[in-house]
Design brief:
With 443 residues, the protein is an alpha/beta fold. It contains ten helices and 21 strands. The longest helix has 18 residues.
Length: 443
């Protein structure tokens, strides 16, 4: 499982895996019979029973040899999904949880072990088979997390399939026993796959050789260039699904003469972020609104804007909630954008303007002044705030939201944006920018 499997809670996760119709539909299989493949997670437990929510591993037999696949999800799920989605669930360290099931597998005579971990890093991409001479010192800093996990894995683990960061990885790392482990990640969204070759000794039943290539899945194109033709069965499922949801996703809501993108300017604001934040603030009638950039998953291209386009932007079904924050809390909230100075999370905002300075070490990343309607906000006064429930529960590290008072739940985010765009002229204008100003070298 990955972190997004928990967005709507464990009951919905189990429905997706084991079957049953969603209450809202529509359906192309009635009743839905569930996934045709197993889900595994060794580090996710039901707090009430102390048992893993899903099987920790699955064993497959290949040419008479058993291979175990152990699952783990990124341990910080509680900070990146809505709190309602993980109620009653505990997440533990990835490496420790995988290591705990190794003795059980040894007892079953299984020594070929693959870990599938929804956590990962990044590495400069290269073609061909695994190159042992590609030092990770030259890789992106993101590799640190997965390197730490692999370094603590039991010596029986030979291969680690990673995810989450959506980046290229094809490397050899050392596990806790000093043995080389093949670590891969094939980007995301089916744009590539990891072609992994394993050599297994039939006597010891252990993996004695491993390498991989990350293969891009080029689509077949009309001029005859090499590519991958659609699988007929998969294409049929897609066509039936598109037919069922077509009347909803193809409904035109408005249009735009220009692209509305998530690309931030040098101060950290984007046209799309401003648009969604405006919709939230005006729908809920609050002083200001905040949306996290990670909640915006696609851009809007120029032309007609359909419901389906907006769903691509806001696919998580977050609720737009309201609360009261003091001016001082708003200052501290904006400061939390730089909890990770190497990868700041710039909130998109509406109803406020502010300036910040980003020179020097972490403690110099300072919010200079926050204004509403051109006047500095009062640090002692309370202001009404609209945001999504993911942030309201402290998601993405914005813990100040949890201090908010008088919380009120509201509609789903996509409904708010649809309603807002319907009220705007066609084509709708881009929202005003300049809400955020970055001060550099005193200017």
């Amino acid at each position: 499982v990955g972190n997004h499997e928990f967005d709507e809670g464990s009951a919905e996760l189990k429905r997706l895996i084991y079957g049953g119709n969603h209450r809202k539909g529509p359906f192309i299989e009635d009743p839905y019979t569930g996934a045709r493949y197993p889900y595994v997670a060794a580090n996710v437990k039901d707090k009430a029973t102390g048992r893993t929510l899903l099987p920790p591993y699955v064993i497959k037999t290949v040419d008479g040899v058993q291979i175990a696949f152990i699952g783990a999800v990124v341990k910080n799920v509680p900070s990146i999904v809505p709190a309602s989605g993980i109620e009653g669930i505990a997440f533990s360290d990835e490496a420790s949880s995988i290591n705990r099931v190794i003795p059980e597998l040894r007892g079953k005579g299984v020594h070929a072990i693959v870990a599938a971990i929804h956590q990962g890093g990044a590495q400069p991409p290269y073609p061909g088979r695994t190159d042992p001479l590609r030092p990770l010192e030259s890789a992106a800093g993101d590799m640190k997390t997965v390197t730490d996990i692999v370094s603590r894995l039991d010596g029986e683990v030979d291969v680690v399939l990673t995810a989450h960061t959506h980046r290229f990885t094809n490397a050899l790392l050392k596990n806790g026993a000093g043995k080389e482990v093949l670590v891969t990640q094939a980007y995301s969204a089916g744009t590539a796959f990891a072609d992994i070759d394993l050599e297994i000794d039939p006597i010891s039943r252990d993996i004695v050789g491993k390498s991989a290539s990350i293969i891009t899945t080029w689509a077949q194109v009309p001029d005859g260039k090499p590519g991958v033709l659609p699988d007929p069965a998969a294409a049929d499922v897609l066509a039936r699904a598109e037919h069922v949801v077509g009347p909803t996703i193809n409904k035109v809501i408005n249009s735009s003469e220009r692209n509305v993108t998530r690309s931030p300017n040098r101060a950290g604001e984007s046209d799309l972020g401003n648009l969604v934040a405006d919709a939230m603030r005006l729908n809920r009638g609050t002083d200001c609104a905040f949306i996290n950039p990670g909640g915006l998953r696609a851009d809007l291209a120029a032309g007609e804007v359909t419901w389906g386009h907006l769903f691509s932007v806001l696919p998580f079904g977050n609720l737009v909630v309201t609360m009261q924050l003091t001016g001082e809390q708003i200052y501290r909230l904006l400061k939390q954008q730089w909890l990770d100075p190497e990868s700041p999370r710039m909130l998109q905002t509406s109803g406020l303007t502010y300036s910040w300075m980003g020179n020097g070490p972490h403690n110099a990343w300072t919010v200079i002044e926050v204004k509403k309607d051109g006047v500095a906000i009062d640090r002692t006064r309370s202001y009404s705030v609209a945001t999504v429930d993911f942030l309201a529960t402290g998601g993405d590290g914005f813990s100040v939201f949890r201090e908010g008072t008088g919380r009120g739940d509201g509609p789903v985010d996509i409904d708010v944006v649809v309603s807002y765009l319907k009220r705007l002229p066609r084509p709708f204008p881009l929202p005003e920018t300049g809400r955020v100003k970055r001060i550099t070298n005193g200017t």
